[in-house]
């Protein structure tokens, strides 16, 4: 086995820079109180020697781990099959990478996983947490409170004390749904249905409320509950056609649901948009452009939502606070949505 060169030490950096070991430690570990000329000498020595700071020592000085937990309250089979999560993770990863912070991905399959996530967060391994895809009965918010970890949530919280400072990022789900249904009404459609998402999540509830804002109190047969998946959309569309064969438009809770609905319509020989107009939600590319016909949908900037979640958390940490929620951040940031016109409606 070839011998490896020994790693440069703080003492070697100090000798090359002509300063004390303590001075080098303060510079490389983010401490204060070192004059700028000395800082520059230390940095030049660090670069010349290829010195890599010891993370454990750095954490003792900065009380930071340069790591953020991303907690997705879904099983891995759902996370890796749904492009929504990939887009959100991309936005988060870009922001964390730009700030030299690591992403630690934690998924939850069941109650045992919730306990594991709670133990991990309590163990002080990360500086904060980004949490999304929560469900109504999810114990994660309580576990996070117990861990005392600064947290930003993806999606409007639904717990009773959410107004007490929980920081979150969401899109205008209700307004986007209204825009979609108004568009269908403007096309002259009169028997407009809605295939919901999982109604134990606030995004699905808000989109259903937006549908009702326009349609009032619709025939209950025109609302079918689903789960944000293609298979769920396909099943719900078949059920809808059995209930109301005269339906002439569908607003689906997301693009995956809409893609499943389109499959069921082809199976039943219904033309889109001639017989039934279809609108989705998310504008997940390339999915929305590759359906047959291409999908009219409500666009939310999923990647930007992830980036903004990370940005809010890091900004709070940089201010040196260690509260559960990101300090001084607005309690809720709602990003706008826009209707994207394609061939399905």
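Q: What amino acid sequence fits the structure above?
A:
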């Amino acid at each position: 086995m070839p011998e490896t060169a020994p790693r440069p030490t703080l003492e070697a950096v100090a000798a090359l820079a002509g300063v004390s070991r303590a001075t080098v430690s303060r510079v490389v570990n983010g401490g204060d109180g070192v004059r700028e000329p000395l800082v520059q000498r230390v940095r030049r020595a660090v670069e010349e020697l290829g010195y890599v700071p010891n993370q454990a020592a750095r954490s003792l000085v900065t009380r930071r781990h340069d790591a953020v937990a991303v907690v997705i309250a879904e099983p891995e089979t759902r996370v890796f099959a749904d492009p929504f999560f990939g887009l959100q993770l991309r936005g988060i990863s870009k922001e964390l990478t730009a700030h030299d912070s690591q992403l630690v991905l934690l998924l939850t399959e069941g109650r045992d996983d919730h306990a594991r996530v709670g133990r991990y967060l309590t163990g002080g391994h990360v500086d904060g947490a980004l949490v999304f895809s929560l469900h109504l009965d999810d114990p994660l918010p309580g576990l996070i409170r117990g861990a005392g970890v600064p947290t930003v949530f993806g999606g409007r919280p639904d717990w009773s004390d959410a107004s007490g400072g929980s920081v979150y990022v969401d899109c205008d789900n209700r307004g986007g749904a209204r825009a979609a249904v108004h568009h269908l009404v403007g096309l002259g459609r009169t028997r407009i249905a809605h295939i919901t998402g999982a109604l134990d999540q606030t995004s699905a509830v808000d989109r259903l409320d937006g549908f009702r804002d326009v349609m009032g109190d619709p025939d209950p047969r025109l609302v079918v509950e689903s789960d944000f998946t293609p298979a769920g959309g396909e099943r719900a569309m078949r059920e809808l056609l059995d209930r109301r064969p005269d339906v002439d438009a569908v607003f689906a809770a997301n693009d995956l649901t809409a893609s499943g609905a389109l499959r069921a319509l082809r199976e039943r020989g219904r033309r889109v948009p001639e017989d039934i107009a279809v609108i989705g939600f998310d504008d997940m590319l390339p999915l929305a452009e590759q359906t047959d016909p291409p999908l009219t949908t409500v666009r939310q900037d999923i990647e930007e939502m992830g980036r903004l979640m990370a940005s809010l958390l890091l900004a709070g940490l940089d201010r040196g606070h260690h509260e559960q929620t990101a300090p001084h951040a607005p309690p809720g940031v709602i990003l706008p949505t826009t209707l994207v016109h394609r061939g399905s409606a």
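Q: And what stands out in the fold?
A: The radius of gyration is 25 Å.
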